[in-house]
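User: what does the whole thing look like in 3D?
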Amino acid sequence: MPISALMALAYAAFAIFVIVVASKWVKWSTMPMHLRWELYPVPHEAGRHHYGGSYIEEIDYWKKPRETTLVGELKDMFSEMLFIKRVYQYKRPLWWLTYPFHAGIYLILVWFFLLFVHGILSVYVSIPALATIVYYLIQICGTIGIIAATIGCIGLIVRRFSDKDMGKYTVGVEMFNLFFILIVLLTGIATWITYDPHFQHAMEFMKALVAFNAAYMPKLTEIAKVHVVLLCLLWIYIPFTKMSHFIGKYFTFHKVLWEDEPNIKGGEIEAKVRELTKFPMPWSAPHVDTGKSWEENVRESPKDEWGRWRY
Amino acid sequence: MKKEIRVEDAASPVDQLIKLTVKDLEKLPPPYDKPGMEPELTDPKPEWREKYATDLDGYIAIDLPWKPQNKEEEERLIKSFLSGLNKLLTKEGNWTFLQPLLLSLEYCAKCQTCSNACPIYIMSGKQEVYKPTWRAEVLRRIWKKYCTPAGKIFGKFVAGDIELNAKTLLRLAESAYRCTLCRRCTQTCPIGVDNGLISHEIRKLFSQEMGIAPKALHDLGTVQQLKVGSSTGLTPDGVRDIIEFIEDDIEEKLGKRIKIPVDEKGAEILLIHNAGEFLSWPENPAAFAILFEEAGISWTLSSEQVAYDAVNYGVWYDDLQLARVAAKHAEIANKLEVEKIVVGECGHAHKAITVVADRVLHDDIWIPRESCMPILWDIVKKQKINFDPEKNNFPVTLHDPCNMVRLMGVVEPQRKILRKLCPQFREMEPHGVYNYCCGGGSGFAIMTSMNFPEWRNAIASRMKFKQTLEAFKDCLDPSINKYLCAPCSNCKGQIRDMLAYYKAPERLSIYYGGLVELMVNAMVDLEEPFIEWEFH
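Assistant: Here's the predicted 3D structure for the full assembly of 847 residues, as structure tokens:
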């Protein structure tokens, strides 16, 4: 049986999400190497992270092997990703709202994954014991996730209106984003309460998706259809907005604030520097020789026709 | 004047967006909690308003008469700004910081978690225009509105409310000089957004596109350094004379003459001081010379233009100037055939040549560079010199230069020395990588034009003064000499101004100095104390 329109929308939403996220990843990861701009503490500094030290505390550090710890970096990364540590440390009242919101979303993502596993187990591989465990996990993650995310989302909206420090800086699209998420969550709650209290139909929907077969599709109520459509639109929309900060966050920390790789003679970084300094200088201030390369500008300050400094 | 400031007020037609008074500011601890203990804040001179940017808070950091005088000049300014902004967003124009800048413009959640990390915002009594996000949001809105498809199509809905006029630009540029680039705010951001970097990039746009920067940083700073040899104006002949004078001074104190090596080819280390040390605190290079000679280190100073001044003001406002100065340092070091450059007690010079300029040096302008701190600790740890900590038996606290600590991770060597050689050493709170800026960071310490020093001392330095008072709260009695150790020339300059502003030497006997002075003061071989407890 061919796929239904809703299934097609779900496939499209997922595909667009993946493609746009991947293209953003490519965009950020192919940007030119920047100057070093690390910020301490850098968590991969073995034995020094606890006080914020770096390998530069060593005499002749460039001659010595660098001691780094992946565990330190993962610890810092996960405590930020999973617990939003910095908001907890530095802005606790906001954390009580943003944490349920983000944790709720994480649980909803886990819920999607569990639905997918359940779909595979229903269509392709039969492991009844595992299917039972997954079934109960779906109940737990779905229930806690949607409640936590909704409470957090409402809290964040109220906070944006009531906290003038945040409100003054919030632009229209940022409120729209929060309301968009809230509507998706509320239609989800309505669907869950009125139509699908045990996520049975959600499981059937996913089964249809993994089987590429509309025959498995449950008969959806109007509110369920609205929810699915809005949810798909949200999936499509997120990567185009700063709600995709999960991508940005990787680069801000790993490629800027924790990026402390030294430029060692004869190394890869030196080769990159050689290339990057070939770029022509577009700037127009008097102390710049516009059009000449960075390298030429660095080596030779601009002079007038009599060889005097031009500025 | 408006009380409640919003981002869009950057374009407001009022003469001055905020006016500060002492009573608005965060209170200081005793004895500065009483009225009359600090000077009142003044208004800018009326004639300054015509040509200088007094439009933000009445203070002038950019001491150039760049205020547009008519509509045509305003349009030209806006056009140049937008042209610069576009260049800032290209890899040709800004490969140096494109990725960090775009990440910070794109992903700020406006959660304001960073605000309370900023000592200027807090100590100013939470003035909106000093909030780390205020200037960043002004730039972000302009960027969205003029440089992104979404902003162009959806306008205010996406970009927010912002009007681009001369006032906006005057305030944006000035506000970039109300941030010391200490990046304490960035430490707190859950997304890693860097509002300090945005200040840096605003400064850079104005400098690289329009040549607009404080004279102390550009004309008298990097330009003078490249032309004459030093941002202080010190020439090669001048530095050689001062070195001779230092040798005489050492002989007087140590009882034996030390020949300070200058331009010695093949030495292991080229030691570069901030040239301000030669002029304002010659005891600092003297102390280095004593320690290095007594410890048997192979080293030299340079008397060649640029290489006797470690400063690199480019790191605060202009990538090209940063690269030019760093390249010159490396070129001269290679000519001297030394193994490495070691930077003396100068925080920004540490960061500039060791970290930030690390990725502009290559081939013949590449050379290893390191901080003096590990070498100094090595002298103490390996007992290369005999020290007697009892000679330093007075209260000592440490100011952590942001550039050395938070921005390059050199944290422990200096405090290990202090723990070993100063029995009454006590930390400021917070300290290490979570320290507060002295208030002179990012060039402020050397910016002395017009009314800027008043702002710097009363606002930017206020948190450091508070921390200092708290560190010495058990010994505020003026009969006890107290030593605020600041292993950085610019921090010392600012701390000198701060202590003088609050009359702390005469009221509380709080003095300041570097780290090496304390080390030499503790040397067993020295008969008379090296530290003279004079305020200068």
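In plain terms: The mean pLDDT of chain B is 97. Residues 7-210 of chain B form one domain.
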